[in-house]
Amino acid sequence: MIASVHFPILQIVLPLLLAPVCVLLRGARLAWFTALTASWGAFGIAVALLYDVLAGGPVSYAVGGWNAPWGIELRVDAANAFVLTIVAGIGAVVMIFARKSVEHEIGDSRAYLFYSAYLLCLAGLLGVTVTGDAFNLFVFLEISSLSSYVLISLGKDRRALYAAYQYLILGTIGATFYLIGVGLLYQVTGTLNMMDLAQRIGGQEDLRGVHVAFAFLTVGISLKLALFPLHFWLPNAYAYAPSAVTGFMAATATKVSVYVLLRVFFTIFGVDFSFGQMPLGEILMILAVAAMFAASTVAIFQNDVKRMLAYSSVAQIGYIVLGIGMASVTGVQAGVLHLFNHALIKGGLFLAMGCIAYSIGSTHIRDLGGLGKRMPWTAAAFVAGGFGLIGIPMTAGFVSKWYLVLAALEQGWWWIAVLILLSSLLAVLYVWKVVERMYFQPAGGTGETVERAEAPLGLLIPTWILIVASIWFGIDTRLSAGAALEAAKTLLGAG
After folding, report:
1. d(CA 130, CA 112)
2. Which end of the chain is more exposed for a tag (fewer CB within 10 A), N or C?
3. Structural domain count of the chain
């Protein structure tokens, strides 16, 4: 045991308390250093918790000394320890990237507001992941969402305000649906603690209130994780937000929402009710396959790379949900593994586009001609990340798609395995559009007339940290696949 007994609460309190400090400091450099300290501190705590959970089992923390179910419980097991690590890790890396990116896109005069909102968003996401209380999950969800709206609105393009407003409306609808579902469960069971809910729902599955709560929670969570066709807020939010915000949100926000789906349907309701008595598995798999093909097809016809990657995220969420919908150990392992791998890949890709936006002032495909020569390191990072999206061997994307295929074949669903392979070919088409422009077409376009020099190290290093990590976990899968397997067993009660 290497983690302090207070690490679960410190995971949330550290960024939450330092957020207002950024406002008080005002200075861009001091605010950045404060946010950097909080981010890396949270990452260190997450790694320690993951180590302890994998070595010794779940960790429970009673806030204020009030034991569950009367008090608020923070509970860390194999499932959320894995998600905590990736969220905190991405946040720490993005904060390195943020210094120059925020200075360029937002400006020093408003930088402290960015860092404050960023820490609130990080605290909210970590709180959603670590809490063992269904209502407090809603509270932390709102903390992360409200700060996300602010972060998106800081984009230079005026359309960022519309994107933030659209996200606010749909996010509020999703949160309301979730809250109604929790309220109905409280009416039936008289408790909000997740483990206590799971016990008290047993034997009451036939009650109408439980069924209605299940439906409200399904819709609310699906909106939050941008499951097709409830994904309309995501493309604009990713396309017009500042580069650091896009990289952070694309790698964390929807992944935490996927975790909420896992926790609600596997822990609270249980696999027998969610995937046996209720037709959740069939619904998730149909929507997942639709997302894989529809969103990838739309991505092919996008002219802005950030928007293209946003639609790609909707498709990749489809792969994650497909594995979850199989409700088997291998399927859930594949879904959780792809959650981890896609966070690294898509985070790296959006940071690479941030490097390009910094250097040439545009992410439009027409403006990327000749960047393979002018910005070789940035272009190479995009190509390596693109390989991960496609699922080329020796990348993390290949590993999780391989497990998805194995899960489908275990069930005898060979046609699902074929669909996974065919949808991956669509990724080849939209990734190739960018690669062709960068390496095989001359410079030209209507972007800002600036010298297309390589991005500074302050942007390249964090980009390559994520890209190298995505390659590393495509070669050595012991940690990622092993932790995902433990998470799947925990959720399914199989280990």
Report:
1. 27
2. N
3. 1
